[in-house]
Structure formats: C-alpha cells, structure tokens
TrEMBL record, chains A, B, C, D:
Family membership: Belongs to the aldolase class II family. MtnB subfamily.
Protein species of origin: Biostraticola tofi
Pathway where it operates: Amino-acid biosynthesis; L-methionine biosynthesis via salvage pathway; L-methionine from S-methyl-5-thio-alpha-D-ribose 1-phosphate: step 2/6
Keyword Glycosyltransferase belongs to the record: no
GO annotation terms (biological process): L-methionine salvage from methylthioadenosine; monosaccharide metabolic process
Protein name, per record: Methylthioribulose-1-phosphate dehydratase
EC number from the UniProt entry: 4.2.1.109
C-alpha cells in the first residue's frame, strides 16, 4: 500500500523497522510518535527494540496531560513530543533517534547550533529551495529533567522558531513532519547532512 | 533474466533499487534515465524514494524540448540528462546520485576536478587500461539555475571532453554509459574511487 | 516467540546470528555462553562462524571444573566465562565479541580503562540513570595464558568491581547481563558508545 | 550442506556471493579460483559481478600453460593464481579482492610490507598462535604486465616465503587457503586487520 494511504500506526511501525535497519536506534533507544487528533498521539512504549516493534507496543497519550488515558505513565521523553505537537498544529509525526552521527556532531559542535550550508540535500527539508541558504539545527544541552529541557526548547522557539528538528547534545535528534512520510524524509536528509558535516570537518581539520 | 536482455525500463528500475540499497540516493534525491531513441528518454519523476520506485514513476521526455509529451514538465535537473544525451549519441543511460562520498569529496577538493591516479579500479571505467593513467572527473559549482549549469558543463566539454561523469559541488555525481549495465559499473567504480580518495586524503592529511 | 519466553539456547543462537550480521565476530572469532544452572553453562564450540551457527555447536561446561562433562575440553577462553559466572551469581549470559571498534579503542586508549561520560546511551546499561555519571570499562592487556588473564581480571574486580563488561587490548569485548536479552542490549549499547568515542577522539584530535 | 562437503565449485560460488555482499569486489573487479587437481583450477571469467555470479561463469585453466583447455584465454591475472598454485601444492583456493581498505592501506604504507602485530585476530590465520608474533603481508607495486608482476612475487617468495597472501599496491589483496573455507577465513581475518590498522593509523596520526 502506498505510504500516503497507510493508517498512521502502520506507517509509524514501518518507519520504526526502517530506523532499526539504519541502526539509528540501537539498544532500545529512541521513541516515535504520530498524531491521532488535536487531543491525542500514539507513542512507542519504552524498552522495545525499534527494528522489531509491533502495533501493540504503542501507547495513546493525551497531548494536554501527557498521560496515557487510564492513568499509565509513558516514558519521560514523551514531554518533548507533546511540546512539539502543541507548538506546531500541522506536525503529524515525530521521530527521535540516537545515531552515532547525531550523537558525535552534537558534542563536537560546542555552540548552540549546527549550521548546514552549501549542500544540495538541504532541499530534502520542506520549504528549502537552495543550497545557498543556511539551515540552522539548534543543539540543547542534555538533561534528565525533561520538563526543564522542554522549557528550554520552548523558550528558544519563542525567539528563533524551530523548523525541522533539534539535537540534544550527546543524545540524539528530534525531527518531525506533516506526516510520517515527511518526517522520514527529514530524518533521512538530516542524517545524511550530519554525516557529510562530520566527514567534512575531519577532512578540513576544522 | 540477464541484464543485457532486460527491457531498458526494467534494467533502470533494478538499478534504482540497487542504488537505494547502497544509500546513494537518500531522502528521494537523485534522478535516473535511459534513452529510448534518438528523440526520447525515460526519467524518474521527482519525489520518489529510489529504493522502492516502480515503472509507473518514470516520465517519457522529448530530448529536444526537454518536455514530457503532452506538456507535463519533469524535474528541473532533466536538463542535465538531455544535455548529456545530446553531447554523446552513444550514451544509453545516465545515473545521478547523491552519496556522502561524492558530496564531501566535491567540497574538499577546491579545484575544478578530482584527479584519480594509481588505482587499479580506474580500469572499471570503459577504455581505461592502466592505473598509471589519470582519470579526470570535473567538478562544477552547484546552481539552482539548471540551464546555466548545463551551459557551463557544455562549455567545459567543448574544451576538455567529458568521459564518464562529472561532480556538482556539494550535490552529487552524474555518470553514464552505453547502457544501464555500463552506467552501473561506472557508478560503482567511481563511488569506490571517491571513497578511496577520501580515505587516502584523511590518512595522508593532504 | 518473544525473546523472554525463548529457551536459553534458542535465544543464544539468535544472538549469535545477530552478532554475525553486525560483523562483530569475523573469521569464526568470539564465543558466547548462557547459564543453565548454578553448575553449568552452554558455550559455543571453537571454529564456527557465529552468523550461521546452530544448536549442535554448543558445549555444556561445568562451571567448577571448566570442563565439558565427559572430558572434552572447550576453548581456552572458556575460563573467562566461568570466572564471570562465578563472580556474579545473577549473570545469565556472556557475549565475547571481536569488533573493529573494540579492538582499535582498546589499543588507542593506553590507560587501563575507557571512561564513557556525557552520552545519553550510557542509560542502555542496567542501572545507569544519567549521562552525567561516568561508566568505566576496564582494559586488560591481552594474553594467550587465559588462567593468568582471568586472575588479573579477578584481582581487578576485587578492588574496583566490574559492572557490564571489560575490554582485552587488541582483542575484543566481554560483556554480560541477567539474560541473553540484557547481554544483547549491553553489547549493542557498548558498541555504540565505543564507535562514538572513536569518532569523537578523531574529530577532537585527542 | 556444511561447507566441508560442498563440491569445490559450489563452495567458490557461495564465496563469491558472500564477497559481493561485503562489497569487496565492486564493479566486476577481482577473480577467484579453486584447484581441481594437480593440473587444473577453475577461475572466474572476467567481467561478471561477483555477487551474482553463477557456475557457468567459471573457466577450467591448465596450471602449466595458463590456458583454458580448447584455447580460450582467461583474464591476464590468472597468471598470479597459477603461480600461487605452483608455489604451494597444498593451496586449494585463491581469492583476489578489491576492497577499499586493502587499496588504501597498500598506498598509505610506503614500504614493501604491512606488519600486523598486537591483534588477537592474527590467530584467524592458519598457524598463528599469539598476538605477540608479527604477521608480514608483502606489498608489490602494481603492474599491468602480469608475467613481470608474477616474477617479482616469485623472487620475493624465494627470499621471504609468502604465507597467507600479498597486497598489490592501489589494487587489492591475493589470499589463499587449503580449501575455500580456509581462504574465506583468511580473507575475512585480513580484511578485519586492515580495517583496524587503518583506523589505528588515523587515530595515532602515524
């Protein structure tokens, strides 16, 4: 079935399996979600290998309360998903991955953003039209206090709007799209750009 | 079926799937074509993942007008495909890919060409007989103005003839062959040589 | 069948196949074991490719004598497995792999430990709660005299307790868990962290 | 069927497919052979992709004349295979591959040998018992004149006997074993060691 016609959960399960194949969520790390409505999203339950996850390992989360209906509490990082859904009513899917490239680049870059420039593949990000423009991916210092981290992300967005995603230092990438298909393209494009950027820095001893 | 006996579109679809497996066209990037006659080629429609593309996602383009018969307009980069077909009547297939190695090498090398020398695998390119010869792969600065880029490629070719392909800086590789089979061999050989060249530069801190 | 419900040998065979796919045990290297009881474990017989190993290629070893019941003698490195089972009554599975990253990192790091700090993925290791903590993975110089190496490991453990695993310099990683599932997660997490650490050292020219 | 019981050609075809999966023979490069008797070997015909080669793409070569019975002439590099079979009556299979690591390491190392030392995986090579020993893999400058190259290899062997294989600079690896199974293990072990050695040189800026 073409991805556009898949039910959202099926599309998200397929995205998890693809992410597993890519090695971007080793050792049960990461979490993925899809919006069901203005009030709810589905999100991966903690502790499952993304490459072999199935439909019963997703929880329905209330976007206002951040809780699973019925009172079960999802993983702490759910708070970053619900933040992004509340900031962007048009976002339909969020992918949070732990790749080597995202982990290392977010540590090597000591400032608060990775700036991507001069790459044709910037155009894989919705709305980008030229390699001459600059794509800014913010980096936030990691924290185990997710509400505090979410608050820093929200504050930063109020000044410089987020676009496609952000990095958490030494941790990984959050990225999103209108639907699972666009979120996958953004993830694949950003991972490509991160790998290029690391290679370029190595070769140019920057 | 042996690749030599495949209908051209079948061979091109198989090449796209293989390129998808290699990771040389992430996030729906790249485009691939095969010549049908002196007047027409088939080319990938924009926006499809190459690893899972199927026969209905190809457009028939008029090599003179650069348009799809009936008036649909294919992706802008079609102009580089039609240029190559017009420069080389014997070219039967063109592969345009976006690999990390092609992207990075074309930025690290600041001159207008990558020169490959001393590699046995240069002989994977049609007509090359010795590692002692030099293979010159031109690099053109990227542009979103494809007619202007095509014009620079044509001008360069008038002075120093193109042979197997060229790089667009920070963008990717265009390469070709008599048929899909030879274009695949050239792509695989060039990608191998680009990876060797990057590794060698890293190790020799060139 | 969910991995938690697999018989231990089935889970271990599946782990070997997965390790083969990852390329962490090339050329028949490495050995893997699972505890059967307080007295016995099953361990891979030497000389088999881990990626295609099957259930008949495992030996039942007596944890006290280190011998196969009936007198057959398993590979020399069995002594490190039996040591770990005797040090940790709760350990249920041990994976010993030979990856490029573990081999190289254990040589590049000249001290007696790799210290991992600042990585979210440290939390893939049982009991770790924050990227701000330090995970210490000891490195022991390699030896062909396994009883002597086991004695050095035991002495070190008496001073600084082992937690998840240790490296043998220029050789590979030993890691473990309560069961095969946790040992796999520890292996995948440590391999990820080793790859990040190598990349980071390259980029920071440490 | 266990590899030990496979007919030699079946084992060699399986080895070619495995090498294709590893990416060690891109763009139809490389050639592989197996001894049939004191007088003949089977060798891959030039120009086929090793990952999808089948039994009809092998030629029977006379080890004395270097010719195919009936007068067909196999690829020029057959002369290096027949040399190795004549130098070592116990060699049953030869694998000649073109990997990035073998190509780059043989260029980065300017002397006439790669010396491997301190790696447990040296024991993947028949007869090696300790990481403290040194494994010497000679490097010969590449040449398109195969009889001349074969003569240099034979002269070198007369002084310092070859053991497992040799590198041709900027070209690739020749390695061998008693049978296809041992040749595969030697190839996998040497490729692992070459990758470690390149990583180590990068990290130690040697």
């Amino acid at each position: 079935m073409p991805i556009e016609q898949q039910p959202p959960l099926d599309a998200l399960v397929a995205a998890c399996h693809w992410i597993g194949t890519k090695g971007w969520c080793p050792a049960t790390g990461g979490n993925m979600s899809v919006r069901l409505s203005g009030q709810h999203c589905l999100i991966t339950e903690s502790g499952h290998d993304k490459g072999s996850i199935s439909a019963e390992h997703f929880l329905t989360v209330n976007l206002q309360s951040g809780e699973v209906d019925g009172g079960r509490i999802p993983s702490a990082e759910t708070g970053l998903h619900t933040l992004v859904y509340s900031l962007f009513p048009t976002v339909g899917a969020i992918l949070h991955t732990h790749s080597v490239n995202a982990t290392v680049l977010s540590r090597v870059e000591k400032s608060n953003a990775v700036i991507l420039e001069g790459y044709e593949m910037q155009k894989s990000l919705g709305g980008q039209r030229s390699h001459l423009d600059r794509v800014i991916i913010p980096i936030f210092d990691n924290s185990q206090d997710i509400p505090a981290l979410a608050s820093r992300v929200a504050d930063s967005h109020a000044t410089v709007p987020l676009q496609y995603g952000f990095l958490v230092r030494g941790h990984g990438l959050y990225c999103w799209g209108r639907d699972v298909k666009e979120a996958r393209r953004h993830l694949e494009g950003l991972e490509f750009l991160f790998q290029c950027e690391l290679q370029l820095r190595l070769l140019e001893a920057k």
